[in-house]
Amino acid sequence: MTDTLHLGQTLSFSGNPFDDGPDAAHHERRGGVLVHDGRISDTGSADHLRRTHPKATVVDHGDGLILPGFVDAHAHYPQTGIIASWGKRLIDWLNSYTFPEEMRFGDPDYAAEVAGRYLDLLLEHGTTSVCSYCTIHPESVDALFTAAAARGMRVFAGKTCMDRDTAPEGLRDTAQSAYDDSKALLTRWHGQGRAEYVITPRFSPTSTPEQLRALGALWAEHPDCLMQTHLSEQTDEIAWVKSLYPQARDYLDTYEAHGLLGGRGLYGHAIHLEPRERDRLREVDAALIHCPTSNTFIGSGLFDMDGLMKDGHRVGLATDTGGGSSFSMLRSMAAAYEIGQLRGRALHPSELLWLATTGAARALRAEDRIGNLAAGLEADFTVLNLASTKGIAQRSARADDIWEALFPTIMMGDDRAITTTVVAGHTVHKRADAN
Ligand code: GUN
Ligand code: ZN
Prior knowledge:
Helix content is 38%, strand content 24%. The protein is of the alpha/beta class and 435 residues long.
C-alpha cells in the first residue's frame, strides 16, 4: 500500500492547553501528515517528510491548515430536520418540535435518508466523529451505523431509551425492551469496524427508576461501553426531576442510585451543578459535555468552563444538534468563547481547538484513536482555508502568529472554511473551489 503525504500548515497537541498553555499545541508553518493504511504513520516538517518518504504520493494543500478532524461529543442526528426551530425552552421545545420528528424514525427509509444527510453535513463542516443519540427505534441506530460505515467514520451512538408517560405515546419503550433492544444493538454493532455502541437513557424525566436500573445493569455487564445522558441543563428541568424523584439528593443522584454514574459516563450540558454533583463527577472522572450553541439557543445557562477545568474535570465540546443551532464545531468554539466571555474568562484559540478535537476525543475515551495528528492515530483530519470569506481574509492577513490567523475563522467561519476532509486516509469531502 502506497503512502500519502498531505502537506500544509499543521497544528497538533502534545498536551492540554488549559494546563500547559498554548505551547501544548505544535504549529508547523510548512508541515505534513503521512498516511499509511488509514492511519497516521508520521508527522513533522514537509522537508523532513519528503526526504524520508520520497515514494509517497504528495497531496499539497498549500497554505491550508491541516487539523485533527473535529469530534462532536454530543448530538441528536434525528433532530437534523428541526434544527433552528423557533421560540421554545427545553421542555416545550422537546414536546413541540423534537418528539414529533423523532416519531418518524421507526421508518427505516426515513432514518437512512436523514442519517446519510446528517453525516454528509458533518463532513462538510470538518467533523469526522460524532457521539449521537438516536431515537427509541432500533432502526434509527442501524441507519446511523450503516451510514457511518459507508463513509468510514468512527461514530458513537445508541438507542435513546424512554419509558415514562412524560414521553408521548409512540415514543416509549419499557424497562425490559430498552434493556433487550440496547443489548441486541450493542452485540450487533459495538466494535464492528469503527462503530461504538453507547448506552443511552435520554434523561431522568423520561425514564422510570426501573428503566434506569435496567440500563445501569446493562452498563455493568459491558463496562467498556460509554453511557450518555443529560444532566442539569435548565432550572425548570431540575425542578421537574426533583418532583419525579423526591428521594434523590440531587439530579446526579437519580443516575448514581441506578448504576448510571461512572468514568465512561457522558453527561450533556451539566450547567447548574450542586457542589456534591461536581465533587462526585470529578471523583469518578466522568465527562461533562459542553454544548454552547444549544445553551444559548434554548436559553439554558452559562457552563462554568474555567471552574470545571481548574478543578480537573474531563470536558468535551459538542453541537447538541438540533437543540444546538449549528452543525459546525467552528461555530461551537465561537459560542464557547462567547460564554467564556460572559463568565469573565476569554478562552484561548488553542483551548477552543483542543476542546473540539483532543478534548472531545478524551471525553469519549478515544484519544488513543482520534482527535490529534500523531503517528498511530486514525487518519481523520480536515483542512481549513484561513481566508474563506472577505471579512475573514482581511482580518487574518494582518495576523502575527497562527492563533491570530486562526481566531477569525473560529469566530466567523463556517463550512466554506473547510476545503478538504479526510476519514481513515480517504478524502471524503473536497470543496469545489479548494486548491
Ligand atoms: N434533554 C433531554 N432530551 C434532550 C434533547 O433532545 N436536547 C436537549 N438539548 N436536551 C435534552
Ligand atoms: Zn442532547
